[in-house]
Each structure stands twice: as structure tokens, then as C-alpha cells.
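[Q] Does anyone have a clean C-alpha cell version of this?
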Amino acid sequence: MVPRFLLSLEAQGLCAGSLEVYRHILSRWHRSDVADPAEYLAGLPSRHMRAQHGIILRRYFRWCVEGGYLSENPLAGLHFREPRPEPVRPFSDGEIARLLAACLLPLEHAVIVVLLDTGMRASELCGLRWTDLTEGVVRVRGKGQKTRFLALSERALVALEIARGNDGRVLDVDYRALYRLVLRVGKRAGVEDVHPHRFRHSFAHSWLAKGGDIGDLRVLLGHASFQMTARYASFYEGERAVAAHRKYLLAAMAAS
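[A] Here you go.
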């Protein structure tokens, strides 16, 4: 039933990255020796994993019940609440320079540059077609097939042209291949924890650090609410608070 379930999620507009998470978690549960899903969840090593896996498994079982494949949802009476995620540390200027220098192929360079310059989701980049580009502006189809527009820098346009894909696609890469690509570049550059979504957080941090408006950032990232955008701004806000505290301490010492 899992392939049918994933197909239904894709038809509802779930992005490729989220689909991959669903596929991974459902596959892990099926491979386990624990038939009872509640018992399986209890054996996971962290609260975060139990919440994430529980939410996805409960949704899967609900779909099975609605489709007549199960008589009842074994997790219907359980409630899961994911803990607030830790702020994602953006790439430093030095790490960005190393990542760009580590790109050996035009496709690698195009992916890294566009992710850094736009903050778009990896799945959105994979879905771009040349008909989506007009005079330096790209039309992006986000979650739920919602459309937004982003500007492209000259370096991004040049990089995309050099790495031009076939059959009208901007780049010849799917989500899995893109994920492996950034991991490969990160390993080559000696930068730890390199994954597509971290580029999105780095874009948000750079935008705010350079004085960008958080309302514009919400639109550019394709968020439906400021609550989600606030998660991307949390590292920058913490960094700014530390700088303000340091300034305060210097002023207090000078006055004493």
C-alpha cells in the first residue's frame, strides 16, 4: 500500500523532499521486526524521531482506513508533538567560498549558486523549465503547486546556461541526484553537514543580515505564515542578540 499512499501524496502536491522523508520512514518501519506500530515508536531512540515517525505512520494508517485497507487506525488515539527544532547554522562566508571552489562540474556550480542566491527548495530547482524564466525572473512552483517569482543574479543565469538541461528542463537533475550532488561537493570542500535545505537557511540569514525585510523573505521563501519564516530567522536573531550583548558589556566596562 505504501507506493499507492506516496502516489496520493504526490498528487496532492507534496514536494519531492517531503515525499522522500515519508518513503524513508515507512520503509524503515516495514523493515523492522516490530509489527505493533506503537511498540515500534516506543523503541526509537529520541523524542524527535518518535514524533516525526508517529505523525507520518498515523497519516498512513488513516489513509489505509479511508481506503478500506484497514478496519481501524492503530495510532488513532496517540498524539504526537514535535519538539521545537534547533536553529540551523548557516554556512559561513569561508564555507561558501570553499563550496564554490570545490565545484568541478557545471551542474555542481549551477546548483550551489542558485540555492545560495534564491533560497528555493531543492525540489523546486529540479522542476524548473526554461519557459519559467523571463528577463532574469523565474517562476517557481512551490508546495501545493503555489506559484511565486524570484530574481536570478547574473552569475546564476550564466551558470544555468552553461549547465543547460535537455527537453526544456533547466537542469538535468532530480531530487535524489541533487541531494547526492551537494553531499559530494561538501565532502570535497571539507564542509560538514551539507544538505540542500541548509542553503535555504543560509539565504534567509544572509537576507536578514544585509537588512532585508522579513515580510519580503516570507514571500521569497514561499511560506504561508510568519511562524515558519521565524524559524529561519532564529539563528540570525540569536546572533544579533549576542552582538548587542557584547556591545552592552563593552559600554558597561567603559563606564565603570
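[Q] Thanks! Anything notable?
[A] DSSP finds twelve helices and three strands in the chain.
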